[in-house]
Amino acid sequence: MSTAVEMLPYVDPRDRGGAAQPMLIARELQRHFRVKGAGKGAVVRAVDGVSFTLFKGETLGVVGESGCGKSTLARLLLHLVVPDSGELVFDGDAVGERGGVNVADLRRQVQMVFQDSYSSLNPRMPVQDSIAFGPMVNGRSKTEARRIAHEILVKVGLRPDLFGPRYPHELSGGQKQRVNIARALAVGPRMVILDEAVSALDKSVEAQVLNLLRQLKRTLNLTYLFISHDLNVVRYISDRVLVMYLGQVVELGPAAEVFARARHPYTRALLGSRLSMDAGRRIEAPPLVGDPPSPIDPPSGCRFRTRCPHAESVCEARMPTLGHWEDRSSHVAACHMTTPDSGHSLAGAA
Amino acid sequence: MDGHTEAAAPLLDVRDLTVKFVSREATVTAVNGATFSLRAGEVLCLLGESGSGKSVTLRALMRLLPKQAQVAGRVELGGQDVLALQGKALGAFRGGEVAMVFQEPMTALDPVYTIGQHLVEMIRRHKGGTKVEARARAIELLDLVKIPSAARRFDAYPHELSGGLRQRAMIAIALSCGPRLLLADEPTTALDATVQIQVLILLRRLQQELGMGTIFVTHDLGVAAEIADRVAVMYAGRVIEEGPVADVLRAPAHPYTAGLLASTVHDQAPDQDIAAIPGSPPDLRRLPGGCSFAPRCGLATEACRQAFPDPVYPAPGRMARCLRVAGVLPGLLREPV
Fold first, then answer.
1. Mean pLDDT for chain A?
2. CATH-assigned architecture of domain B12-250
3. What per-residue confidence (pLDDT) applies to B327?
4. Is A5 within 8 Å of chain B by CB?
5. Nearest to residue A127, comparing CAs of A196, A77, A178, A191?
6. CA B286, CA B238: separation in Å to the nearest integer?
7. Contact (Cβ atoms closer than 8 angstroms) between residue A130 and residue A122
8. What is the pLDDT of residue A231?
9. Is residue B260 within 8 Å of residue A203, measured between CB atoms?
10. In chain B, where the domains are located
11. Which parts of chain B have pLDDT scores under 50?
12. Average pLDDT in the A32-40 region?
């Protein structure tokens, strides 16, 4: 699949770093939110030291339960929420720093599709105007922007003459999400962040939109960051997967590897919680008990230790690190069991 | 699984249930002649996508629909005509004989009352007794649904509990008066994966221990596989397929069920498109004549567009409303699963 993309003679003039330069590098991103009424200085550690690399042309899936920080992470990448600390490098240029790429330029190249397809469109605007809005803001004339909008509508499978003049309430959920994808693509981004973009859709419509996303990625040479809580969808669409728990990355690796040989006990529990679709093979005992702890006052050491069946004293004493990764094939996990000399009795066995 | 005899009177019998919402602009037929039944102690999953009428059906069973809804057909619970209930009898029926677990516990629970107050109100209203007795029963119920430190959680407000605990509290309230029929409307959809499976296993265990008939509305085939004895698949307000869960998921008889299975992402090869059902569900204000799935169906013929197909029974315990069952399921017709 990736070879087909590499064979294209077309080179994006905006590609400054070349194919080997990652599209996006995040280093130690951190964002805490103050909470009122939860004690002095109480903060939600929404994203707490997240580092990863997004390579050109790949789809990186981000999974985790609600409150793990995946949506805050998406907003940090676009500076919709400004990070407290950490560094963001887009195609070799530091974001928001002198000599780097400014936020407006970043947003021309990175777009986002949100989960709620209705609230992300202006209810008082025909959808073709919503789509044309981006190009107009970026200096296109009204007629030019309208032409772009119609071209994009065709690409997402909606007839412009039929659907362009409609208002959001006149469209079904699947059609609205196609419009949102069109709106994101209208400014010609190189990277798209899909934040639970198919989660609210019915299964039969979800399948249509997933097929569309894959096809658009091929034809427009896009890079995706695909956030979802649905592990089956993430396995299907992603090249690599990043697993988050309470604001931190616990596992990162190629999708096939992570799903076949998960190294972090949390990832294994997530995978074990997937429903089987086979009434003859029901899950008899839940892989985890209880809910995730509050991100306001996360456990010391490893944040997963309060729910982990293998937790030992070392897990309480020290926070495990994710380990070093080099390239697309690296598979790392933040768990003392995967570090040979960590002091955990099962170290090296997992 | 099919050891029960068909002759035994069902706990719940629903015949030609029709619900119309009439407004000046249009008439929306949300449920269009749904027919199904439930035996005592059985779990039936109503499976369908949004707009298929599954939630409206559930609300009709508990008489929770607003006044402007026009309800027709017949609903019998243990021989009692549910649609004819009025006044006090209706009050005793709701919560006493039938209880409902909703999808969003945060909006279904009253934020200014504690979990304990919710429970005590229910128990005293239906069973009478003193406050002290009701409190003891309430804590027993919180224990039953595996809420840790139940006595302390009795005084907690809904916002002080996590999503999983809130849904457990909701289940405790529903079970508080020992209903004969439990209705659950997507009770695990809003929960995280690791919590969803805990609640599903809890519901499965409680249902087996307490033996109440249960109707479980879901859009998720995986949830149905985990909890149902039988499934009834709904499309555009009708039950279009029904049968034992394992058989229906293994070998669907209706093209819509087959399409739903194929389009649910589950272990498909990452380099291939998913076999999505083309198009979208029909507009409930203007249902097509004939089979409502025909416009999206690859097997549809001219006959499919003439009249809505009558039920056919391709195997023992299975029903499908499709003229082309033979086209979907040739194997089933030859040797019943």
1. 91
2. 3-Layer(aba) Sandwich (3.40)
3. 63
4. no
5. A178
6. 15
7. yes
8. 93
9. yes
10. 12-250
11. 1-6, 331-337
12. 83
CA distance A169 to B311: 36
Please name the residues between 86 and 145 in chain A that touch chain B, using a CB distance below 8 Å: none
Q: State the pLDDT at residue A327.
A: 85
Q: Where would I find the H helices in A80-228? A: 103-109, 127-137, 142-155, 160-163, 173-185, 203-220
| Domains assigned to chain A | 2-245 (3.40.50.300)
Distance between CA A67 and CA A33 in Å, rounded? 12
Does A73 have pLDDT greater than 60?
A: yes
Token pair, residue A256, equals 């096939």
Instruction: At A163, give phi and psi (nearest 5°).
Output: -100, -25
Q: Please write the tens of the pLDDT for every residue from A181-203.
A: 999 999 999 999 999 999 888 88
* C-alpha span between B142 and B150 (Å, rounded): 6
Number of H helices, E strands in chain A: 12, 11
The reply to whether residue B50 touches residue A173, judged by beta carbons under 8 angstroms, is yes
Q: Which residues in chain A are closer than 8 Å to B45, comparing Cβ atoms?
A: none
DSSP-assigned letters across all residues of A284-326: -S-SS-SPPPPTTSPPSSSTTTTT-TT--HHHHHSPPP-----
C-alpha B273/C-alpha B255 separation (Å) is 19
pLDDT at residue A4 above 90?
A: no
Residues of A in contact with B226 (CB under 8 A): 275-276, 279, 282-283
Alpha-carbon torsion (B21, B26, B30, B31), positive or negative: positive
Over residues A29-54, the mean pLDDT reads 90
pTM (2 decimals)? 0.90
Minimal Cβ distance to B49: which of A204, A233, A235: A204
For residue A213, what is the nearest residue in chain B, using CA coordinates? Answer: B273
Among B192, B225, B268, beta carbon nearest to A277: B225
* Whether A250 contacts A69, CB under 8 Å: no
**How far is it, in rounded angstroms, from Cα A11 to Cα A15?**
7
Let me know: does B91 contact B63? Beta carbons within 8 Å.
Answer: no
Q: What is the ipTM of this complex?
A: 0.86
Sheet containing B80-81, strands listed edge to edge, beginning at the edge strand earlier in sequence: B27-38, B12-22, B69-77, B80-81
3-class DSSP assignment, residue A59: strand
**CA separation for the pair A201, B335 (Å, rounded):** 36
Is residue A326 predicted with pLDDT exceeding 80?
Answer: no
In this prediction, residue B336 carries a pLDDT of 38
- With CA atoms as reference, the chain A residue closest to B194 would be A273
Q: A325 pLDDT exceeds 90?
A: no
The pLDDT value given to residue A1: 45
- Six-digit token pair at A189? 């981004």
Residue with tokens 């609600």: A66
What gap in Å lies between CA A257 and CA A235, rounded to an integer?
Answer: 10
pLDDT of residue B25: 87
B277 to chain A, any CB pair closer than 8 A? The answer is yes
CB B181 within 8 Å of CB B98? yes
CA-based nearest distance A301→chain B, Å: 22
